Request: fold
Amino acid sequence: MVLRADLLMQKIKDEGLNVDTAKSVGFVFGDRPDGGDPISQFVVNWPAATYSARWSQEESRWLLSHNNKVNLAESGVILGPTTFVIQMVRISPSEYGDKFGGVTPLSETIGSGKAYVLRDGELFVTTWNRAFEGSGTTFTLADGTAMNFAPGQVWVALTDREPEFTSRNVENSK
Reply:
């Protein structure tokens, strides 16, 4: 899809339309805080899928795999963000399902809980907070300061299962 922003903006002006501004999703971008634990990879498991990633120092981002297969874009580039968030939430069956009887899970993202923020090859344990449905989710460090995300893409995994982390210094699980 190709968009001619200049023509769209002229149409908005000609028709006197209002342009809404995007709401903040709560993310804060900036310098990496001190106190992260160096890790080389992580794994997040759900009942029917697994996501894993390894840190690429050369590309300064997490390179993703889905169900043990490298997660490739149509172009052949490995997908991966500069910041990956693993947000611990309560997951329960929802009222929705498929024609085969499968139930769509409901991830509860209003409230607060633990989250792992992975950036620059480091793991930060944070607290997530989302006060109500229309608000963004914030992430804070133990001292109460905002957790800065790295510039670039952010991927968020909602899970109720503790992830596995592999230390960069000692190849064992944390």
The mean pLDDT is 92. Helices lie at 5-14. The longest strand covers residues 37-45. The radius of gyration is 19 Å.
